[in-house]
Amino acid sequence: MKDLQSWEDAGEIELYYFDESGFSQRSNLPYGWSPVGKPTQMKSYPHNKRLNVLGFMSRRQKLIFHATEERVDSAKVVALFNKLAESKDPLKPAVVLLDNASIHRSAEFRRHRLDWIDKGIWPIYLPKYSPELNLIEILWRKVKYSWLPLDSYETFDRLKESVNDILSKFGQEYKINFV
Q1: What is the 3-state secondary structure (H, E, C) of the chain?
Q2: What residues make up the domain containing 23?
Q3: What are the GO MF terms of this UniProt record (predicted)?
Q4: How many domains would you assign to the chain?
Q5: Using one digit for the tens of pLDDT, what is the confidence trace for 132-159?
Q6: 80-139: per-residue pLDDT in tens?
Q7: Is residue 23 within 8 Å of 144, Cβ to Cβ?
Q8: What number of other Cβ atoms are within 10 A of residue 53's Cβ?
Q9: Quick one: pLDDT at residue 48?
Q10: Would residue 13 count as lying in a domain?
C-alpha cells in the first residue's frame, strides 16, 4: 500500500479508494448537548428511505460518486467503474482499492475486469476485514458525524440535498487531511 501511495505522490498513478455507504433519517449522532432545561428532541423515523452512495475517493481530494435511492448491486458498481474509465487521465493507470463485498466479486463485476485493465483501471482487493485500510471510510464517517447539519434529518429530500451538496464540494469546502 505504501508503494501505491508513493507512486501516487510521484504522479505515476491515480490511486482511488472505492466503497458504498448509506444515509437515512435515522440520525448518526453519537451524542449531543442542549442547555439545561431545554432538551433537544429529534423525530424518530422508524420506516424511512435510504440514500445509497457509491464513490471513488483519492487522497488528493478527488471524488467521483453516484447517489441513488435504489438498492446497490453489481450493475451499479460496474456503471460507476465505467464512469471512472471515461473520466480518468488516459495517460496514467488508476489503481482502485476496494473491499471484498459480494457485489465487488460477483460474476458480473469480474466480467468487466479485463476491459477496465485495458482502459488502465486496476481493481485491487484489500485484505478481508480491514476497513481501516479503505480511506473512503473516513469520508463516510466525516459526512455522517461531522459535516451533515442536524436539520438535514428533518426530511428525506433535505437529507439527499445535504449529502449531495457535501460530496459535490469535497476537495473545496470539505477536506480530509490524510497525513
Answers
A1: CHHHHHHHHCCCCEEEEEEEEEEECCCCCCCCCCCCCCCCCCCCCCCCCEEEEEEEECCCCCEEEEEECCCCCHHHHHHHHHHHHHHCCCCCCEEEEECCCHHHHCHHHHHHHHHHHHCCEEEEECCCCCHHHCCHHHHHHHHHHHHCCHHHHCCHHHHHHHHHHHHHCECCCECCCCC
A2: 2-28+41-168
A3: nucleic acid binding
A4: 1
A5: 999 999 999 999 999 999 899 889 999 9
A6: 999 999 999 999 999 999 999 999 999 999 999 999 999 999 999 999 999 999 999 999
A7: yes
A8: 20
A9: 74
A10: yes
- CA dist 174 and 12 (Å) reads 26
- In the numeric block, which cell numbers belong to residue 131? 476497513
pLDDT of residue 35: 83
Residues in the chain: 179
**Burial per residue of 133-154, b for 16 or more beta-carbon CB atoms within 10 angstroms, e otherwise:** ebbbbebbebbbeebbeeebbe
Answer whether residue 65 is part of any domain.
yes
Q: What is the pLDDT of residues 26-49, one digit of tens each?
A: 766 556 667 888 876 666 666 679
